[in-house]
Design a protein that fits this description.
This protein has a single domain, classed as Rossmann fold. It has a 7-stranded parallel beta sheet with strand order 3-2-1-4-5-6-7, with helices on both faces. The protein has 300 residues and is an alpha/beta fold. Helices cover 47% and strands 12% of the residues. GO terms for molecular function: oxidoreductase activity. Belongs to the short-chain dehydrogenases/reductases (SDR) family.
């Protein structure tokens, strides 16, 4: 989507971290009107204190992404303040790590509700509105390199990020006919406070097999990410992806060699069966019907 100036963006989790970096770039550098939505009012207030000293059009909405009725009201408010939303940044996310066998259902439900259902709710709320206003749009989904790499203790988080990667790839296939672009941003380390996400965990997800508010654990987690991207620099990469309708946004080339190895492992597993009788039978049917295999897509 070119010419972002004057258009409206809705950014979830927009009061801090990666999402606040996106808000700063889109509002201050791209000239967009920006809605920042976040569950934490104090964080929204702090963000708005920042934007009040800048030449930026920003409006804050307190929002629990898991509340679909509240999401619809937030969309109505966004449109009443700034007009139709053209860019949806599904960026809010939470994390908590530990062995799968130690997890509770509440541990699963919290991350699934925010990281997966929150993204679904954003798409279900705004995509029909984008289609209706018929002036184009763009959906940015922030996943993680954990959508490609499974590591010990990341099982729940990794599951959520693989899920939204699948959603993004599906949208990539279906949205072009509506003039809606799609980007999948997969950060590795980013110097944010996501390591303190459990501080925002609602009481309804109260039973955990993992850590709670623990400064020793927080310090260890922070040491992993503090050398990562500055959120504003990552926000600039996200802006370029939106402007260029770039689907894969993977600014971490240090992961490439491992990805090549995993891709080759998958391909080798497929090719083990290239001479199986049923493989030959299916190939003959496709040839007779003039069919090609689905799944190939243009690189971007």
């Amino acid at each position: 989507m070119k010419d972002l100036a004057g258009k409206t963006a809705f950014i979830t989790g927009g009061a801090s971290g990666v999402a606040l970096g996106q808000a700063k770039v889109l509002a201050e550098e791209a000239g967009m009107k920006v809605i920042i939505a976040d569950i934490r009012q104090e964080a929204l207030d702090e963000a708005m204190d920042y934007f009040s000293t800048r030449n930026a059009s920003v409006h804050a909405i307190q929002l629990d992404l898991t509340d679909r009725a509240a999401y619809a009201r937030a969309a109505d408010e966004a449109e009443s303040v700034f007009g139709p939303v053209h860019v949806l940044c599904n960026t809010a996310g939470v994390s908590q790590f530990g062995a799968i066998e130690d997890a509770t259902y509440d541990d699963w439900d919290w991350q699934m509700d925010v990281n997966v259902n929150g993204v679904i709710n954003g798409c279900m709320t705004f995509i029909p509105r984008m289609i209706k206003h018929a002036t184009g749009g763009h959906v940015l989904i922030t996943a993680s390199m954990s959508a490609f790499v499974a590591l010990p203790s990341t099982g729940i988080y990794c599951t959520t990020k693989y899920a939204v990667r699948g959603l993004a790839e599906s949208l990539r296939v279906e949205m072009p006919k509506h003039n809606i672009g799609v980007s999948l941003l997969c950060p590795g380390g980013v110097n944010t406070n996501i390591h303190r996400a459990v501080e925002t965990r609602p009481e309804k997800y109260g039973e955990t097999g993992y850590y709670g508010v623990d400064e020793v654990v927080f310090a260890r987690l922070k040491s992993v990410i503090e050398g990562g991207f500055d959120p504003v620099d990552l926000g600039r990469i996200a802006r370029e992806a939106i402007e260029n309708n770039q689907f894969w946004v993977l600014p971490y080339p240090e992961f490439a060699e491992g990805q090549k190895q995993r891709d080759q492992e998958v391909i080798d597993a497929m090719m083990m069966y290239q001479h199986h009788p049923d493989t030959i039978r299916r190939a003959k049917i496709r040839e007779e019907m003039g069919q090609t295999m689905p799944g190939a897509s243009k690189a971007s």
